[in-house]
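Revision sheet: structure tokens.
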Amino acid sequence: MENLTLNVALLRKRVPNLTVAAKEKGLRPATVSNLCTGKTPVGRAELRTIVALAELAECKIDDLIIRGHEMKMIETGIKIVDFFSPITRGGINGFIARSGMGQLVLLAEILYRLKKENYTTMLFMPDTSSPELKEVIESSDILIRNLTSAFEAIPNLNGNVILAADKSLVATGEIYSLLDKLNAIDGLSTTTFLVDPTGEAVDEELPYGPLDSHIVFDTELISRKLFPAINPISSTSMITENNENDKKHMELLQKARKILRRYRELRFLVNAFGFDRLQFADKEIYKRGERLEAYLTQRFFVAEPYTKKKGASISLGVVLDDVNRIIDGQVDELSSEKLLYIGSLNEVM
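Predicted:
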């Protein structure tokens, strides 16, 4: 039972607007999302939920439930992404952000980095005039404006492909028509990124339907100029929810989230009453959370013309070691300011 998962690809193909359809069937969108991402095991799902999903997809239950497979991440070298919400190779990864929060900058950075790793990068041009789109276009090998031009580009593709598109294509179902074509090609692995330049995704429940990775942006981090402004508590991935292969990563992730969650609570108290009013144990958590938050900031390659600082790429192995040192108090002598926009801890030790 533990190896069973939903056939999410089939659901996406047959029920593009799954959130709306699930509500109409009397299902909670969060319940459906948790099943699709594996957060809730199929073995613990109510039978009526599975039956309702099979009815929506107009398929047999045997077609809806498949034996699970090992998920693999794409390592980007971006600390906060690889640690808290790893990109799922061959999956659909979505950005949840309001306009101007840096989602297009992050997308451009990911495309730039993966292009150098021999991924073919495709951009389904969004209907936006955002100045941040310039870097995304420059990091894309192929620009497509409609399904016709997309289908024309398919015969020339091979190996690993990154497809970036905006939310409007989810509602029309066009993104799934394109993915069907891409996934039908032997030896081709397509990893998808969905963004919403309008910012409406923030106000919707499951705006993209089931996702393999959620990257949620944070206005509070933006107000303090901590970039990339990704919320480490809300951002999740099937890799970290489901994968038991890397115990060290999973254990550190849980510890880091616990510290950062408490740190965020304590920030309100510190802002209202001052740091000295905290209990000794809370002072320690606050300072370590502050260091961890600072460490997770990063310089981007696509931003070099504006920041005048060289971009940095940090392997996940180094990130795990660094996070462990911060959590264990091995760098308590360092101020959080010294950790802002560094690469690894070795730069300041």
